[in-house]
Design brief:
The protein is of the alpha+beta class. It has one domain. It has eight helices and four strands. The chain has a four-stranded mixed sheet with strand order 1-2-3-4, sandwiched between helices. A hairpin with a 5-residue loop joins β1 (91-98) and β2 (104-112). The chain starts with 5 loop residues before the first helix and ends with a helix.
Length: 181
């Protein structure tokens, strides 16, 4: 409980101001989640996931505590900065990021493709398939994982100011040999 006038005093403390400053990096990730939720509410979200009902990648992402969101956002932004500047027409980069939740991990996938390829009607399907393969590869490499959350985007360095995210939640408690292959 906060008494009359105490909130104003609290937000003026160094601790509060420093916490807000440290949290700033995590807002990148929050914006991605908010944009996806807004698209769902607007009816403009593509794919076959109903993020408002049941488990989804977004549902899993919002479970992360703020201090972990800082670290995850930092790793996402670092991966974006490290995407090669001088690449051929096609380039991809996969980054594995562990969650604070035991047995959960993230795969962050960036793809650079020529504009003509990105304009093809099935481009997003192809990008999603590559993301799904990468999530499966993460499960194969880290057999302890029971959930893999995939985030796929066009490499921001080459996306021309517009981008769309793909999210995958791959539940993988059961991982039979035919799926592993």
């Amino acid at each position: 409980m906060i008494g009359e006038g105490e909130w104003h005093d609290f937000i003026e403390t160094g601790l509060y101001k420093n916490t807000k400053k440290e949290n700033r990096i995590s807002y990148f990730r929050d914006e991605m989640i908010q944009r996806t939720c807004r698209n769902s509410l607007d009816g403009t979200l593509s794919g076959n996931s109903d993020i408002l009902r049941g488990e989804s990648a977004i549902f899993e992402m919002v479970k992360e505590p703020r201090f972990v969101r800082r670290s995850l956002a930092d790793k996402l932004l670092t991966a974006i900065q490290r995407f090669p500047d001088h690449t051929s027409q096609f380039a991809r980069q996969f980054t594995f990021i562990p969650s604070f939740q035991p047995n959960v991990g993230y795969v962050f996938f960036q793809l650079r493709a020529p504009d003509a390829f990105r304009a093809e009607p099935d481009y997003r399907d192809k990008r999603q398939t590559l993301l799904e393969i990468a999530c499966g590869a993460a499960k194969n490499k880290f057999p302890n994982l029971i959930k893999v959350i995939g985030i796929g985007i066009d490499a921001p360095k080459f996306a021309g100011g517009t981008n769309a995210e793909d999210f995958i939640l791959m539940p993988c408690e059961s991982w039979p040999d035919e799926v592993r292959a």
